[in-house]
UniProtKB/TrEMBL annotation:
Keywords: Membrane, Transmembrane, Transmembrane helix. The chain crosses the membrane at residues 21-45. This is Uncharacterized protein. It comes from the Eukaryota. It comes from Allacma fusca.
Amino acid sequence: EDWSRVKYCTKLGKPKWSKNWITLGLGILCLIQLIGLIILIVLLVSGQGPGAGSSSISASKITSGHVQPGELIFKDEFDTLDLNHWRHERYLTEDGFVLYGTSENNSYVEDGVLFI
């Protein structure tokens, strides 16, 4: 038997372009990751990256004495968005590709209800 012909047929069975498409696909994935990394670096440098919007824990100051368990110590009727009590946090999530912003379309008060 002529085994060289079998080897030749086996080589013809593999499409020549399959390796190129895999390489192109991996290249595109690397490019997407690089773009994401560049966006993250820009946001970190501009102070808007992960943790930039992190709020610190603050304790409520009670001036009227001892507070009973379950007693209400803060109340907001949401007639307006009182920025002395509330603030927008703008940050990029750790998952990436999601940016929480401060647009008034994202949070507003209507009929005594705060929409977030």
